[in-house]
Specification:
228 residues, alpha/beta, Glucose Oxidase, domain 1, 2 domains, seven-stranded mixed beta sheet, 7 strands, 40% helix, elongated
């Protein structure tokens, strides 16, 4: 986990590249950056909101721990209103010391969230918020267990393109190799297009840089290492 995160953060490996590493998968659908120019990568801690209420969010934040330096993912169950706004966002970022907020739903007080430049990724904004009392049946225990198992201790990478999640079972040495390869390949592709003036078709599709002496032998040997 630590090695993968260090590599992603040191090289600012984008959500796009992470999606490529995962075989064009991993996107948290519908989620986009509220504030531009943000890049955050981190281990995930998940809480849930349910039935157009944020009561459970308040309770989980108050009673839980382990939010510091984590990406807090608020999982939306049947909420079409804004789950919370600037007060809770400030509490999460300043007092719970989270690294970022990701919510597959809406938030309110967008003017303040933008002014404060909070690292937030969300589906939408709305002036109409959830109620702050219990508003229906409790979350099904099997659904909660499924949410915790899927998201807790995964890695999320968040930037202007959106959010991609690396599942727990893919955080291993193979992931490290793939991350190193995708960075090396990107460097080669840009070199081919910018310096060698090759077309993107010849570079990306036909991989003509593997032919002849277009690339230094050291670069070709390095590519061969990743493919061995």
């Amino acid at each position: 986990m630590i090695e993968a995160l260090n590599l992603i953060e040191a090289n600012k490996i984008s959500s796009t590249e992470i999606g490529d590493v995962l075989g064009k998968t991993g996107q948290i659908e519908g989620v986009h950056a509220l504030n531009q120019g943000m890049f955050k990568a981190g281990e995930v801690k998940v809480v849930y909101a349910i039935n157009n209420s944020n009561y459970e969010v308040h309770k989980q934040l108050a009673e839980g721990d382990g939010f510091k330096d984590k990406i807090l993912f608020i999982y939306n169950v049947n909420c079409d209103r804004a789950i919370f706004g600037d007060l809770v966002s400030k509490y999460i970022m300043l007092y719970k010391r989270a690294k970022a907020i990701v919510v597959n739903g809406k938030l309110r007080d967008a003017h303040t969230l933008i002014k404060e430049k909070y690292p937030i990724w969300l589906e939408d904004v709305s002036p109409i918020g959830c109620v702050n009392h219990i508003n229906g049946p409790e979350i099904d225990s099997s659904l909660l267990a499924e949410i915790k198992e899927k998201y807790d201790s995964s890695i999320m990478v968040c930037d202007d393109s959106g959010v991609v999640m690396i599942p727990k079972d893919k955080i291993n040495e193979k992931l490290i190799t793939k991350l190193q390869f995708i960075e090396f390949q990107e460097d080669i592709w840009f070199y081919c297009v910018d310096t060698l003036k090759m077309s993107t078709y010849d570079t990306v599709c036909l991989k003509k840089y593997l032919e002849g002496d277009l690339l230094d032998k050291k670069l070709l040997d390095k590519l061969a290492e990743f493919q061995s």
